[in-house]
Structures are given as structure tokens and as C-alpha cells.
Amino acid sequence: MSSSFGSIFKISTWGESHGVGVGVVIDGCPARLPLCTEQIQLELNRRRPGQSDIVTPRNEEDSVEILSGVVDGMTTGTPIALSVRNKDHRSAAYDEMQHTYRPSHADFCYDAKYGIRAWAGGGRASARETIGRVAAGAVAKAIIHALCPNLEVVAWVQQIHNTVCPIQPHEVQAAVVESNVVRTADAATAETMANAIRTARSRGDSLGGIVACTIRNCPVGLGDPVFDKLEATLAHAMMSIPACKGFEVGSGFAAPNYTGIEHNDAFYMEGDRVRTKTNHSGGIQGGISNGEDINMRLAFKPTATLMVEQDTVNDAHEEVRLRGKGRHDACVLPRAVPIVEAMAYIVLADHLLKQRTTVLHPFS
Q1: CB within 8 A of 286, min separation 6: which ones?
Q2: Among 9, 110, 148, 161, which one has the highest count of C-beta atoms within 10 angstroms of its own C-beta?
Q3: How would DSSP label each residue in 38-83?
């Protein structure tokens, strides 16, 4: 079962939702990088459950512990192991799911593939696995800020169900995103979205939507031709996030609506810098960053666990009915924002470190 991602900056997440704990091992982090628990905890606090009335009430502090790879606030260049203990898991709520497959969950597929699964809380299929990603993302962010101080990754909830945030990517401010419980880029839209989530929760239903992400001040030259194109590794990273069902860069699925003349990004000179007049490419051409903003969008499905009865089957292949139990998000998007940012930082750190080992000239 693959639990690793990356080539030079490589992460391996571990642990189950209702096990002793979860975490990550990071290999390839350079030595002498300033790193402390507080940097990692700051990002985990954005992802943790129980932070508002529109997310799961599971009460976890998600306190991180650095087990290895850091001495006196500096990385040593050896593997960094980060651990978070599970403290508020209630496995009894999943007793019925031990033999019954939840609709649109991984239960059936895990059983069919492996013949065994950690049924309490969904095991590795649970979004609690993403704690390791967010922790690793904090380390990747520290690497990037050391190499490219001006690079910024900002994600936000662009849409929940049929409510769309009108703010354009170049206008989004991280402070505004973090100022509301939905993590959208517009305060007025935030309340409408939050109320929609509350309404769905009250009827045992759930909502999906879109998380948008922009990467600003990315250096030119990240990404490799053919299989490791920058958008390909970003897509791999983002589509591995639980509940993510769609990904696009730049014009994405709107590209067929343009002609070639309309879609091409014409080059021009801004001082000694090559720029593009438009950005339909989303900051990536030929699989390599061109220095413009990298704009992405991710589609997330509605949460699969519903507090209403649904048709399903059990592991004896009998047709039965099942009502969801336990504590769950009625909409995963507000807590997905820091996960998206973390995966973007992990991809960028990997490409930055790869670029430093393969190209003689410095970044432009």
C-alpha cells in the first residue's frame, strides 16, 4: 500500500484514524534549516477538528511532537519524524460498519483489494491521515521560504454547492481567508456558505464544492518535461487528498471554449523579465513554471457519511440499510484549505530541491 510521495523531498505518512496516532516521516530535508514545533503546530491548528460549529466536533488538539531530525531548533539532514496522538476517537460508533459497507466510502474496495481493513473511523482512508501531510507541508514551507522568500501559496473555498465566491485569484488575501470559519475570500459570501453547511447538517446531508489555490512569485523553471511536469505532480498531489474528485490548472476545462488566438498567452518584456499578457496557461507551460501566478482549482465531493438511511450491502453480500454514526464534517472544504496549501508546498519544495541538483545556474 503506497503511503509515500515525492522524489528528493519525500514524505511517508502513517497511522489510522482510530489508532494510537498518526504522523509522517520526511526524508530529504536539508540540514541547518531553522524548524520548531510552533511552526508545524500553527498549520495543524488550521486543519484540526472542532474549530467551529460547521466542522466535525471531534475534540482533538492535534499536538505535534518532533521525534527525530531536529536538534536545537535546526534540522540535521536526517529523516524528520513527526507524531500526533489520537485522543478523542470513539470506535464504538463504527461497530456496525465492521461488516457493512458505507456508500461512497473506501470500505468495499479496501476489503476487495486487501481482504482486511481498519474499519473504525475508516483507517487510512480517513481524512485524519492528512495530519501528516499538513505537518510535512509546514516543513516544506520553511524550505521554500529559505530558498524563495517571496513565494506564497494561498488557497480558499471558492464554491460550496451553488454559492460562489466572486473574488478573483489575484485579489485573494490570506488574512481574509483565515478571518472566517468557511475560509473563503469574501466575508459576505462566507456567511451564506456557512448557513448552507448548517442547513445540510441539520437534515443529515452534506455539501461539496471547489477549493481554489494560487501560487505567487514562483521562480521560472520548476517542473520536468514529460512525466514529471509541474502540473502533473500537482495533480497527483491534489487528487490524492480525500474527497477530491477533480483538478484543473489555468483555463482547465474551460479551454475548449476558446480558439487558439484567444487562448495563447502572448509574451512581452517587463524590464528584463519575460511576462505573459494573459494567464490562460495558469503559470505553467510545457510542464515548467513560467513565473506567472499558478492558478489551480480542486473539486471536492459532498461528504459520504450521511445521518440518514441509505441502501448498501454487507460483507456477506446481503442488501441492508445503514444510517451514518459518529462525528463527521457536513462539508470538508473549510478544513481542506490548509491541506491543499500543504500539498502545494510539498510539490514545490521537491521541485526546488530537484532543480538545485540538476541545473548549474541559479533560479531566476
Answers
A1: 225, 229
A2: 9
A3: HHHHHHHHHH-TTSSTTS--------EEEEESEETTEE-SSPEEEE
Q: Which residue bears the cell 451553488?
A: 162
Any idea what the Cα angle at residue 128 is, between residues 12 and 308, rounded to 5°?
Answer: 145
Q: Is residue 56 within 8 Å of 328, Cβ to Cβ?
A: yes
pLDDT tens digits for range 182-237? 999 999 999 999 999 999 999 999 999 999 999 999 999 999 989 999 999 999 99
Using CA of residue 336, residue 339, residue 343, residue 344, what is the dihedral sign?
Answer: positive
pLDDT digits (tens, 9 = 90+) for 147-170: 999 999 999 999 999 999 999 999
- Nearest of 201, 204, 242 to residue 54 by alpha carbon: 201
Distance of CA 62 to the CA centre of its chain: 17
Q: Which residues, 6+ apart, have CB-to-CB distance to 12 below 8 Å?
A: 3, 4, 24, 25, 27
| Distance between CA atoms of residues 24 and 16, nearest Å | 12
Contact (CB, 8 A) for 47 and 338: yes
Residue 338's closest CA among 118, 141, 147, 192? Answer: 141
